[in-house]
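Instructor's aside before we start: the two examples that follow are unrelated to each other. I chose them only because their records fit on one page, so don't look for a connection. First example below.
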Amino acid sequence: MDDKHDDEGISRRAFALGGVAIGLAGAVGARQTARLTVREPRSGAAAAAAAATQAGTKAAVGATVSAGNPGGTTRIQAAEIFDQNMGGRKTAMAVERAYWPANTWDLTPAQALIDNNVAIVASYTPSQQLTQAELDNLNGALDLLKGATPTAIVDSITLTHEPNDGKFPSAEAYQEYIDFYGPAVLQHGYELSYIPMVLSTAANDIAAYYPTGTYNGQPMVTRMYGDYYCYQAYLTNNVRLDGFFNVAGMHNTPRVGIGEFGRTTNVNEIPTPEEFDDFTTYLTKQWTAWNAAGHDSAVIMYWTNGPGNNPDPPNYTSLINLWNALSIDNT
């Protein structure tokens, strides 16, 4: 939801996810001046052949905070307070979402996270007008990110999160958008991720918007994270993750996680502690089963900004239980 994401930031270094170190591979390639991708579906046979017989790897469990939420006067203070409430488990100080609104390219939203070695799943928002000038802006921003001091830790980069929630005129428009801008992310050595809003159990929209473009013969997208909220999706609309995971399986997405999960998108609609606990238990079961089937997790992040999503003490108990079950850091 756009009203949630006004003052967030971004970053990267080699960040171990599920035991796999993801480095800043390769030098930046030549600037593209045309679309360099061909969109191709991955074959069902290839996806089936890739199914592992051993358990997949876990990833970090994080939390995205902002100044004052859940406390403190800076984002880092808020992250430290969140982790204290998690019984000292490194969560918000492990990995957070980072948001660049349109026409924002500098590192200001991310500098505090970079300075404190917090890993980032980053959202840039280049224009839907596919121009060389805007591509140059994105390349310049990625140059800044790659040259950040200290070295930024970037789990992955997405280009406009929640594209299926009314942000694009069609799924085809988003496919063309990723075809145009996506190679710039890969040329800088970063992973490209897809972050839809989970709006229905069938997830037909998530399937339609999934970027299927390739670059140098390889799928561009290597991460998928769902944004999924307790009160509106899980409770009110009875939305489950069946279709979301089906899409990941169809594309053999290497890692699957949660970009945002929270209590609510509306401060006037708050689940009870028991309802939220049921929600987090459901998430825990889903990712436990995903790993047991041989699939790898991407990072899983709680989202807090304001009283609607600032956890109450019973909510922290639920979050601790999820962290204990799903975090790679629980060793």
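Example two begins here.
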Amino acid sequence: MSEIEDKLYRNKHAHLTIDELHVLYTKEILALDIYEEDVLNFTSYTDSDWDCAGYLEELRLDRKEEGEQQMKEDYARIYGCRIDQVTTNSEELYDEEKSIVVFIGSVFLESPEQKLPKTLRNISGCLFSENEEEEIPQNLDYIGGSVGFLKIHTVGPKLPNYVSRIVDLRNLREIPTEGLGFPEHVGGHLKMLNLEKIPPEGVVLPKTIGGDLTIDSLRSVYGVLFPEYVLGAVSLASLESIGEDQLPEYIGRDLILGCLKSIDGVQFPEYVGAGVYLNNISRNERNKLRKQRPDLTILPTP
């Protein structure tokens, strides 16, 4: 990022490489306290004295201050499209003849008649819909804000590859038989509060979640591949059983397993930043786990 800063300091219209443009427009900061490694689409920093996310945002603002035309040129280079396929105009977005690739702004789908173009790959802001059914363009691979399908009961076959903020599927009841492709990375929370059913073939959740993972209605997670890293809490409040190596490797806050009936064979995460809630497990079993894993804060106590 220092190289980008040097270029923009000398000239805010400076020619940036494609990789440098990706840093400004399609990457986020993920702070993992105990891991020093890069995660796809994130840059990992462990120096708590340096506000890396704030620094990146300042660089973005510096570039965006140069105006809409500069942003359009940058996006066109990233996606290899024409400048007129990048727009801030909602009417152009829904015009099929325009074949829009990047929309600068947020999108709110108010009716089923509003169809996003199949050519669309990037929405710089949020994507919200209150429709009960929604068809998502399968080429859409980046959302710079949050995704909220607030009334949808089932969705598929694929969500955008990368969501910078929250994915809210609060009323999703089931994942369809043909499956659901989740984003590889979610920068904020992933909310599926009412999910009750997954197909026998299972489902692969995002590799990394920057906020909380909430799946509070699912009783069994057989076939679910959980993220490696969840920086917030993991709430599986109705879960009664879990495979021995299913849980994430890293959980930044609480792990809530209030209805879990047994911890026999369960492999708990390497790191949990707050409490592990096992309300349905006997006191003796909780005490055994405390001896096996003194690094975990087992609740309730004693």
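The first helix runs from residue 2 to 10.
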